[in-house]
Amino acid sequence: MSGRHPSLRLVATLAFAGLLAACGSGAAPAKDQDPGAQLEIWVRKPPGSNTEKTTKELAAKFTERSGVPTHVTALFDDFETKLQQAAAQKQLPDIVINDTAQLGLLVKQGIVREVDRAGIDGQDMLTPASWEAAKGADGKFYGVPNSAQSFALFIRKDWRERLGLSQPRSWADLDALATAFTTKDPDGNGKADTYGYVVPGSTKRGYMSWYLTSFLWAAGGDYFTEKDGKFTPAIASDQAVAAVEWLKAQFCVAKTVVPGAVTMETTQAHPAFETGKGGIYFTGPYNMARFDKNLGADKYEVLPAPPGPSGKSASLAEGENIYLMAGSKNQAGQEKFAEFAISVDGQTIGMAGDTDGNIVRLPVNSRVTLASVRKDTRWDVFDKVYKEVGRYTPAVPDWTPFRQASSDTVNAIVADCGSNPKQQLTKLADTFQQELTKQGAAA
């Protein structure tokens, strides 16, 4: 995931009307336009990282071809807060490359401008699914797709083989593997210091909800039922309760989860896997290069998650959009940058081969062949999962408050072994109903 946290609540404390006034509808007056103005590009990546370098390479190549100057700023911690501050100061960047899940919030804040899909050169080369992730609840587009991704299981292959166990084909197999990793000393050091599941279960940025989503769907549960663009809470259904009870059991009964998971963000979860604390991590392809370096490619395997109680597999589908920010003095340049980024050349640069510098995980341009850019066949696992069972989060006007509320609730359930999941999820459903009504999306 590329999760959300209390900083998002800053939205409520900022003068929201002031943000809208600062940014307007996104269309700056024609007289204020300057096609030679430098594009300020913000990307949600760690400063100094290889992903920042790739973004700068992409921007430099764009400048070389278009003549439009660019400046890239990589930000990671509290990215959304800093974007809010820039909006309040009327100093928004021209381009933001960030999660697809942020679209609803950005639209709500009025700080992105609508995209004329038909006017974007090369838009017809992008996959239909990627365009769906750039569409708002009103059916209009507010971003240009740039990257897609799905998730899979990273499993300590050396541990599994040392214990003589097979690759998991069901949730029961997966739980048995987690139990063995916790109780049978898979690293052979004679100490009870290993666990099964690595779970980034913090409420910050909604990590716990993010982790649960794929398993919720695989169990036959859902956040909502939808009809004709209107939604009804489904988070307290029997299937949803069963999914949360299963997760709680890993924390409270089997005790197969790495300690500290309830406050763990991905920045702590990644080291827990690569240093041998836990042996099963459901995460994205962007971690392969890191784990190859820090753990060793021969020590782990990448597998699709097995079917859940519903008999089906599921994976959250995510990605990143290029957002054309409101009030830019170079709207033509914004569009040109997006067009270059989604071109075959732009996508190829963004994929960064088999390195950890990728800002394009799975290409959204259908004319880019994955195998022609990457020789690591593990990427094919994620590509197959994305195409066959990938699902984006519900198309409510603003997903952020639902993700945060569900993260808070599920985190509280697994942190308290005396909790009542059915009762807690019923309360969550009430919260969902209130938010749906507030957003004008209730059935």
TrEMBL record:
MF-aspect GO terms: maltose binding
This protein's UniProt keywords: Signal, Transport
CDD domains (UniProt xref): PBP2_TMBP_like (cd13585)
Alphabetized InterPro entries for the sequence: SBP (IPR006059)
Source taxon at top rank: Bacteria
Protein's UniProt keywords contain ATP-binding: no
GO BP annotations, alphabetical order: maltodextrin transmembrane transport; maltose transport
Signal peptide: 1-27
GO cellular component, one term: ATP-binding cassette (ABC) transporter complex, substrate-binding subunit-containing
Similarity comment: family membership: Belongs to the bacterial solute-binding protein 1 family.
Official protein name in the record: Sugar ABC transporter substrate-binding protein
Species per Swiss-Prot/TrEMBL record: Dactylosporangium sucinum
